[in-house]
């Protein structure tokens, strides 16, 4: 049973690696409910999580999750001690804490850009993250950590990318990096989209020149009347005493 579960986890991790660009160390976002379940089932999260995911991990939580355990009192004191050992990631609710379920979902945003795994036993969080593509879910069942299969939202997203209807996160990241290399920002793109007003310029100096008068047309050649003979001219050559030919005066016949 353990080997079968390990194979299924390996297959699921490969799905997120190739389709959503997940890389080690895997970031595991944990809440108080998961720590309470681990304490109850005697699971060492720091030891068993890397073995199960077959890679290096970073265990983290949020300030809202810690504050929630503090308000719940002594019943969850052990879970609070475990959760305090993990890295605390910044969330937008530092001054005004919100329930842990709401905070975790806000950390994922719309596309899980930071590539978080989420470890929780909270059904509200589970239901919400299944609507977000590319979010691996971890939970505890029968004294073991289980990586859930990809949600239908994730499968539909991958299919849409393969059909060319959407751009994958990896392609989005490459587009952003190319824009940064070329020095193209969002503001520049907005400016390019707007039409520029043409500045008033001085007239072309060539267009201000006076137009030249058209030349007088040449008169047509006179036609000879019918019956009138055409004049011909011919040149006679005569020889000089030295034997050279000289042209004779022109004789005109009318």
From TrEMBL:
Compartment list: Nucleus, Nucleolus
Pfam families, sorted: Fcf1 (PF04900), UTP23_sensor (PF24779)
Biased composition (Basic and acidic residues): 177-191
Keywords linked to the UniProt accession: Nucleus, Ribosome biogenesis, rRNA processing
Principal location class: nucleus
Gene Ontology BP, a term: rRNA processing
Residue span(s) of domain UTP23 sensor motif region: 194-213
Disordered as annotated region, ranges: 174-254
Top-rank taxon, per record: Eukaryota
Biological role stated in the UniProt entry: Involved in rRNA-processing and ribosome biogenesis.
Family membership: Belongs to the UTP23/FCF1 family. UTP23 subfamily.
The name this protein goes by in its record: rRNA-processing protein UTP23 homolog
